[in-house]
């Protein structure tokens, strides 16, 4: 299932968020279940689950989300 908003190209999209928004605010806006974001990266740096509710986003930040993967 894709959680990207309409207009996404190459798995990327530019979005507007209110000042002070957090990683979880962004995920909530696009209805990304928190358990589906196993890996969250902001500007190339890992954001652990314990910091996603208070990691404030800034203009120009690049956020990447990856789901959990299974392997064998």
TrEMBL record:
What is the scientific name of the source organism?
A: Candidatus Thiodiazotropha endoloripes
Q: Which Pfam families match?
A: ThiS (PF02597)
| Protein name, as recorded | Molybdopterin synthase sulfur carrier subunit
Q: Which Gene3D superfamilies match?
A: 3.10.20.30
**InterPro entries to which the protein is assigned, alphabetical:** Beta-grasp_dom_sf, Mopterin_synth/thiamin_S_b, ThiS/MoaD-like
Top-level lineage group = Bacteria
């Amino acid at each position: 299932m894709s959680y990207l908003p309409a207009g996404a190209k190459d798995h990327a999209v530019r979005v507007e968020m209110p000042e002070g928004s957090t990683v979880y605010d962004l995920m909530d806006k696009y209805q990304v279940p928190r358990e589906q974001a196993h890996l969250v990266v902001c500007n190339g740096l890992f954001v652990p689950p314990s910091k996603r509710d208070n990691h404030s986003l800034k203009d120009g930040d690049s956020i990447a989300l990856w789901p959990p993967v299974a392997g064998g």
